[in-house]
Amino acid sequence: AEAVYHFSEALRLGPKSAETYLNMGNSQLSLNSFTDAVASYTESIRLNPKAIEAYTNLGVAHLRTGNKEEAVRKFKEALKINPESVEAHANFVAVRSAHTTRKFAEGTEG
Prior knowledge:
By secondary structure, the chain is mainly α. It has helices spanning 2-13, 18-30, 34-47, 52-64, 68-81, 86-106. The model is unreliable at 100-110 (pLDDT under 50). 34% of the residues are buried.
């Protein structure tokens, strides 16, 4: 919580930076403040559209809020920026595997 306060102060006092929003999102994510983290990562991406870590972490935040479809979209966007991102691949596969496993368990998978 203290880190979020300091990042908020940095944004209030100084120029807005993608890195500060990314770091604030990371702090919010670690505090389970997923909706706030989504907003911070989204702003980080607005300021730096190539911020792969922000896309990946935004996907994780969406996943934690139960928005799997948006999480998959963000992981895919991260992979467009860097097709070799291990973290983006791992998260994408984990979400897709969990979805397939659930469908199979429900008897709705082909």
